[in-house]
Design goal:
Layout lengths: L38 H9 L4 H8 L3 H11 L1 H25 L3 H21 L17 H10 L11 H20 L1
Helix pairs in contact: 3-4, 4-5
């Protein structure tokens, strides 16, 4: 019986990314955005492949504060910038598929491609999967509604006393016996 073989078995590991762990907020980072900060300049930084974490560190603010502020200041431009980055990620994944020399780089490229496609589908309607459902009703809907109204039974709630409940039970038992006999 064969043992498990790693996908990267025998593959020399190259240099790791410069930043392998997420940048954490440092002491002194503020939850307040500076008043003179230009949202368009921050979006330009974001489009030059900088992460929101690194931009936040440069500006001395917390990442979630920066993202919330960008979304409030420039909602359409923020969404557009995210879609552009997703498109770049998708294209990088496609390039990676073509250049893959081993199973590990192929798997990485596939995941990058899938992540880019997934984000694009949610951020840009042009990339979303289009589904069209056609419902065709035959016959007269008004006639169906009138017939359904005829099936409604009007009634009122009556409180059943103990004697009436016993009578209903006796009738049910007698009816069941009668049905069994026939």
């Amino acid at each position: 019986m064969e043992s498990h073989v790693r996908i990267d078995e025998g593959v020399k590991r190259g240099p790791r990314n410069q930043r392998s762990t997420p940048i954490k907020p440092q002491d002194g980072q503020s939850a307040v955005i500076p008043a003179d900060l230009d949202p368009d300049a921050v979006l330009d930084l974001y489009l030059t492949a900088e992460t929101t974490s690194s931009i936040a560190v440069q500006l001395g603010v917390r990442r979630h504060t920066l993202v919330r502020w960008l979304r409030a200041q420039r909602p359409e431009q923020w969404k557009s910038a995210q879609a552009i980055r997703a498109l770049i990620r998708k294209e990088d994944g496609e390039d990676g598929l073509q250049a893959a020399r081993d199973a590990l780089s192929l798997a990485r490229a596939r995941e990058q491609l899938r992540a880019g496609q997934w984000e694009l589908e949610r951020l840009d309607r042009e990339y979303a999967v289009q589904q069209h459902v056609t419902v065709e009703l035959t016959g007269d809907l008004g006639d169906r509604l009138r017939r359904s109204r005829e099936r409604v039974v009007d009634g009122e709630v009556v409180r059943i006393g103990q004697d009436a409940a016993q009578q209903v039970t006796d009738q049910g038992v007698a009816g069941a016996q009668q049905n069994a006999a026939t």
